[in-house]
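Sanity check

After download, print the first record. It should look like this:
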Amino acid sequence: MTTFVQPERPQEGFRHELYPYLGEDAFLGGALDFIQEALDAREGVIVSVPGDREALLRAELPDSKSVTFVDAATPGRNPGRLLAVWQDEIARHAAEGRPLRGIGESAWRQARTPSEAAELRYHEWLLNLAFAQSTAWWLMCPYDTADEDPAALQALTRCHPLIRRGGSAEPNVDYHQDTPYAFEDLTDPCGPLDELAYTRGGLAAVRDKISTCAAEANLTGSRLSGLLLAATEVATNSIRHGGGHGTLRTWTQDSAFICEFRDAGHIENPLAGRIRPTHQGAGGRGLWLVHQLCELVEIRSTPQAGTTVRLHTRLSSD
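Expected structure tokens:
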């Protein structure tokens, strides 16, 4: 199990709370109370929740112009794209000069594999790091506890400094700023896999290997083209920053074609690839592109073990 150092407790400017609820009525009650508090305080509100939850709220808020709904499906299934959605909305509302609240419920019920759910939990932890320096930004994260694994809820709880109970937020005793984030182990490859060692001058061989294996899995067209571009970026990083060489493994699992890259490098910044690159910023553009091209990206990186990057491309376009 690999770890990153836990970010320091967010400053007063960013409040990040978990709202565990059971069923639609509890969701609606908690979300409406939170929104009303914001409206009474003349704060802006951004809501990004699954479609059925959005419909419930819209029915209760037909005339409110102070509530902005953001389509939770816009970034797709990759949690690595979610931070940029919040950043874009915060920047868009900044000109108003008002404090801002958000309600963000990830698409937990749409997570089809343990890897997808694990990356959603990691995204919740990264919010503390990404917005540590933000001012006047308050995010409530609803989570339906119906039929959920208690261990999964416990893992999610430790990602939130605050927890909402009885209509108010209180410090979460299960959140410890000095505890490193414990990644869930990568799943073992299922079924046969192909392997290729690559080094400088070997990018063409990497692309050829992926193309051959992808064709056997019936992955073709634009989806394969996007994967090849993402794979080239990751392999290039291995050569430049991972000791000049790496290992590619490919296999099919959970209706997805997976490319795994291993090298001896270390990615120090856990936000790399998740924050939209700027014209002034150096680096990070390659991993940003990778997140835009793949349905799921798993990264495990430590100085001791090196870096493993897994790219998931679903074999259907749903």
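If your output differs, re-run the checksum step. Summary of this record's structure: The chain has two domains: 3-182, 194-314.
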